[in-house]
Design a protein that fits this description.
- The complex is a heterodimer of chains A (about 350) and B (about 270).
- With about 350 residues, chain A is an all-alpha fold.
- Chain A has 16 helices and four strands.
- Chain A has a two-stranded antiparallel sheet. In chain A, strands 2-3 form a two-stranded antiparallel ribbon.
- In chain A, helix 8 packs antiparallel against helix 11 (about 230-255).
- Chain B has a domain at about 1-85 and about 220-270: Rossmann fold (3-Layer(aba) Sandwich).
- In chain B, about 35% of the residues lie in helices and about 25% in strands.
- The chains are: A mainly alpha (about 350), B alpha/beta (about 270).
- At the A-B interface, helix 1, helix 8, helix 9, helix 10 and helix 11 of A face helix 2, helix 3, helix 4 and helix 5 of B.
Amino acid sequence: MLYREAGDFNTSYKQDGQTFPIRFDRYRYYAVLAVAFGVIPFIINDYWANAVFVPFLIYAIAAIGLNILTGYCGQVSLGTGGFMAVGAYACYKLMTGFPDVSIVIHVILSGGITAAVGVLFGLPSLRIKGFYLAVATLAAQFFLVWLFNKVPWFYNYSASGQINAPERSVFGIIVTGPNTEAWAKYMICLVFVVACAWIARNLTRGASGRRWMAIRDMDIAAEIIGVNPLGAKLTAFAVSSFFIGIAGALFFAVYLGAVEVGEAFGINKSFLVLFMIIIGGLGSIFGSFAGAAFMVLLPVLLKNVLVGGLGWATDLAAHLEFMIVGGLIVMFLIVEPHGLAQLWRLTKEKLRLWPFPH
Amino acid sequence: MLDASEGYTTADGRKIGGVLMEMQNITLRFGGVVAIKDISFDIREGEIRAIIGPNGAGKSSMLNVISGFYRPQEGAVIYKGRKRPAMKPYQVAQQGIARTFQNIALFEGMSVLDNVMTGRLTHMKSSLFSQALWWGKAEAEEIANRELVERVIDFLEIQHIRKTPVGRLPYGLKKRVELARALAAEPSLLLLDEPMAGMNVEEKEDMSRFILDVNDEFGTTIALIEHDMGVVMDLSDRVVVMDYGKKIGDGTPDEVRNNQDVIDAYLGVSHD
């Protein structure tokens, strides 16, 4: 009833090309933004920030990044963890090397550095495809983690081999370090998420997005209509790594505060983000959010129900959690390979007709 | 023989211009197999040029040479009066040569509109930064190109499926969308690889009308491969006939129809 495009006429191509062409969608989007900026910061506490919101927002950025490469451009990557590590270490070096510069600029620069590294590891993509490319990016993952462990310059020769985020503030509000308030962590991540999602959406609806999708759907046809395959793939690697680098920098500086590279950015992280975009939906910005929310919320929910609600032992609950998450991933791949975004699309198609069957 | 610089007038009174593309002694080998052997012909501005021949004659290979997929071992391609250096297919496309495929090569995951918009990619030059902020050149360019694409969509009568994912369309419409994508590039030379393959009579008639209209309204030069002789003879101004990689005939449809080598190639020769 509510969800109709009837009476919603687009009179220019500008209107027709907008992100939310249906009025109801647009209002819902504004409502979500209003709650995210206007309500949550005032009621958030440490538990909700650290267990749910901050990891969700940061993983959403990483998922958007990987989705651009894998979902939009069709290049499978298992190097996400490694690229997040590049972002984290770049941010650490910048924070300690230039303490007077704003952390926001550091995070953006970390994205830029990661983009450069991503392009470097993306070069083989012109020659190798599919599984073989995945293996090549896996090499990037292991190499980068090894590099950050091996070369002491990256962790400023600290005895533990860890990197620790020094205290930095934005507009006088502390956003990194142990004294950060929950709402400040949440807000800085939220601002980055909104900016990244907006940029990703702009890129994917324009010429670059079409170049990427053309390469994904049929690379030979893409070449015949004038898409330079190397250029398209490398821009996808660059943009994807830029977002993943920002996610890594925030993950280190805002969320964890202290990082040991093998633990925080190991191969598990690569798989986690890959699961997010598979479950959320390949080639969809909304899917990146849905997948990140699913993979962050589900363990928290299970833990609360099993340990908090039923009073089971923690280790039993932890093992059950693995089984349930694993089972759900398999189920998703079988039942809805296009992910939560596709379910959402189908729901919307049904809603447009509701309450009539046809 | 026709003069290289001057054109001619067709039977129905259309003026055909000078040489747009000239193939000079093209030879293409795959290992020991000779796919094309020493073939020369030209394509003139504004004409509809057909390449015909029995299966395996090397027609598609010839089209692939023109569009840059294959590099001939010998011979030269002269395009717009200049010898074309070795090029990648995307560079050929940027020079204004668009094509369609024998078995449809659309982007199945994208809508019809997005598919046709990809045809404009060679004309879209805005920077990544401008696109990221959707500001200034990127947006203006998007809207300008959208207008042009909408004209092509109107022209080919596919307005109603504009937002439909290509994967859901029937075969005949997919062929039309592919033609739309090639047309959107505003090519100087349009290559059609079996545009009527697998179509019924009505769809063939529609397609023929579109091809003639494209040539007529936009003045696009068209080179096409087709098996349906009725269609070829009706549409084309001049025909090249190939058999086993060699050129066995070249001329107007009437000349080709009465060429003994062509008749032999199609009907076979008795060996008594």
